[in-house]
# Entry
Amino acid sequence: MSQFLYQLEWIIKGYEFALLLWFFVSQWSKYSWSLFYVRGKSFKSLEHHEMHSCFMTILCMFVFHVFASEIEQFFVSPLIADLNNKIKVFYISGMIIQFIYLIVIFSYHRARQCLFSRTTRVCMYTTIAVITLQFIQLIARGYVDYHALVMVYFVAVWICNIVAVSAMSVYPIRQTLVFIKQRREAL
# Structure
């Protein structure tokens, strides 16, 4: 089961990478390096804020998904022999990584004086939900030795991931549909 989920996780990471490629292919010619470096009064409209907010959210989500899963898979698990300590480290490290993700997203938006898009807000809310689930599992499995919530945890975390990926998909899909409509009208 865990090997299947690991493979499924890589499919989601591949999709996130495809979303990043969409931004580079569709927006690079218009914005080039300002995708990364625009700030404050350089934003021309709410759509410009939304585009940058979505881009940085997808970029951060992809980077954190890739590194967080690999850190847990290859570094944390083999180093700890005791199952109870492994459970504690797993959930604590997960909460720390998710919290760092929130700080990075929030700091980026504050430093760039960029408004939070709906996509970013949904991703942040789902991240807070995942942190809460990890905390519940830390208490239940790590300290109380209660393992009955494991399936609830897996299902809830996957629902949060699917909601976040769906939210990240909205902007590229909407912009692609607008582009297709403009091309049809031009013909």
